[in-house]
Design brief:
The complex is a heterodimer of chains A (189) and B (277).
Chain A: H1 10-18, H2 22-44, H3 47-64, H4 75-92, H5 97-105, H6 119-133, H7 137-149, H8 153-160, H9 164-183
Chain B: H1 3-14, H2 20-32, H3 34-48, H4 61-75, H5 91-164, E1 169-176, E2 184-190, E3 195-201, E4 210-217, E5 224-229, E6 237-242, E7 252-259, E8 270-273
Antiparallel strand pairs in B: 1-2, 1-8, 2-3, 3-6, 4-5, 4-7, 7-8
Helix pairs in contact in B: 1-2, 1-3, 2-3
Classes of the chains: A mainly alpha (189), B alpha+beta (277).
């Protein structure tokens, strides 16, 4: 009926899900559960909540796969955006402020570098981590605070005690530099 | 804001790091600017790569099962089975749900016990009420019997009075025999109709297996049986009687003690008798 799941492109997988193919959703889950659960867990720092959110994410994928438009970004970006939004919504929900403060106390750069990654994602992770490692600490910190804690530039400036203009510059230069470093390996990611 | 200004906003917007007002303004611009839109799509893809800097983690296998279960339930339109809100089937809420379920079960159990106790109380009241009603019924029956008896006695007394007042009434005095020396009686009868009344006093109490029997003994004839009766605790009796036509005139009236159901011929001792005419 269809080719080996790992052979199907992410785009085709989402189109199949949009047609109501349950097995395509299962394949999508099998393909991205580790990295998306890692993302959610990184944001929430609570396995129970992270599993709840992961479940919400894939139900949303099931219901909204028809909204995916490859002209507006990669399938992975679409999936990661849903997962990140859901997790950040949960984080902002009542009772999560304490954890936010706890997260703030942690040094974001601690998360970069030395993990044993699963085979599927290890190469991509290695590229991204390598690229992040080449940024300045300040650039990296600003990007990670925005991405994993959902902070605006203004909030980051307040958190770090840096001028807003500086934060804007670091964010912009950081992401552009990341793109340049990853650019050569774009096909991989 | 100029095109270049919007370009400055593309990176922070790809990380959702703009303030709401700026983000709205940029979104409006993206609707009309293909160049910025293309750049934004590329930046968004780049930003999403930050996901890979997070440690991959394995969720429990139940998560996959739950997702597929919900999807299947949704497909079959089993809205009750699937949680249709975005909040889906969650794990901690499930724990809360269990607590609620347990609470509801305990409440239901308590309610059931309370209901049972209530039913027992009501049942016991019902039994008590039935007993009370039965007792009242018994009392009512007893009183009704007494009333009937009293009416009967009253009727006899009226009859006796009417007979005494009748111009055709004839009275026979009965005297106690050797067996019942203190006893005495009166037999009054209407000589036209034969309607009669008998009154006795001072008769000994009736033994349980015995009864007094009244006899009409016409001259030269065998005794004819009349009524069977008992006396009250004071040895008194009052009973209506009908004088047989054959006994009218000169019959002797006698009372004997007989077996309870009476006899066809006198077998016991004479207690009272009228004088021979």
């Amino acid at each position: 009926m269809q080719a080996e799941p790992s052979q199907i492109s992410d785009n085709d997988l989402l189109h199949a899900v949009a047609r109501g193919d349950e097995s395509a959703l299962a394949d999508c889950y099998d393909r991205y559960r580790l990295i998306l659960f890692g993302l959610i867990l990184r944001i929430l720092n609570d396995r129970q909540e992270a599993e709840d959110v992961l479940q919400e994410v894939f139900l949303q994928v099931w219901r909204r796969a028809g909204d995916f438009d490859e002209a507006r970004g990669r399938a992975f970006t679409w999936l990661a955006t849903i997962a990140r939004s859901r997790a950040l919504d949960r984080l902002r929900a009542a009772g999560s402020r304490a954890r936010l403060a706890e997260e703030a106390a942690r040094e974001p750069t601690d998360e970069v570098g030395d993990a044993a990654l699963d085979a599927l994602n290890s190469e991509k992770s290695a590229i991204v981590r390598n690229a992040l490692a080449q940024l300045t600490d300040e650039q990296r910190k600003v990007l990670l605070l925005a991405y994993f804690e959902g902070l605006t530039q203004t909030e980051i400036a307040e958190r770090l005690g840096d001028p807003l203009g500086t934060v804007k510059t670091r964010m912009r230069s950081g992401l552009i530099k990341l793109r340049e470093i990853i650019g050569a390996a774009r096909d991989l990611v | 804001m100029e095109h270049q200004d919007y370009q400055q906003l593309l990176v922070p917007h790809s990380l959702d790091a703009l303030e709401l007002s700026e983000a709205r303004e940029l979104e409006a611009h993206l609707e009309t600017c293909a160049e910025c839109r293309a750049e934004f799509v590329a930046l968004r893809d780049d930003a999403a790569l930050l996901t890979y800097s997070a440690e991959p983690a394995e969720p429990r296998p139940e998560v996959r099962a739950r997702i597929l279960e919900s999807v299947r339930a949704e497909r079959t339109g089993d809205r009750a089975g699937a949680v249709m809100t975005d909040k889906v089937v969650t794990m901690r809420p499930r724990a809360n749900w269990n607590v609620w379920t347990m609470g509801l079960r305990v409440a239901a159990g308590l309610a059931f016990i309370a209901l049972l106790i209530g039913l027992i109380v009501i049942w016991r009241r019902e039994v008590k009420l039935q007993q009370d009603v039965a007792q009242l019924n018994h009392q009512l029956n007893t009183q009704q019997h007494e009333l009937v008896r009293n009416r009967d006695v009253l009727a006899r007394q009226r009859e006796a009075l009417a007979l005494l007042n009748s111009p055709d009434a004839k009275r026979l005095q009965l005297a106690g025999s050797q067996t019942a020396q203190n006893a005495r009686g009166s037999f009054v009868y209407d000589q036209k109709t034969g309607k009669a009344v008998f009154v006795a006093d001072g008769l000994p109490a009736t033994p349980p297996d015995k009864a007094y029997e009244l006899w009409f003994i016409p001259k030269g004839h065998s005794p004819m049986p009349g009524r069977i009766f008992t006396v009250d605790s004071s040895g008194h009796a009052l009973l209506p009687e009908q004088m047989p036509a054959d006994a009218m005139g000169n019959a002797v009236i006698a009372i004997t003690l007989e077996p309870k159901r009476g006899s066809a011929v006198p077998t016991g001792a004479i207690y009272l008798s009228s004088p021979k005419s």
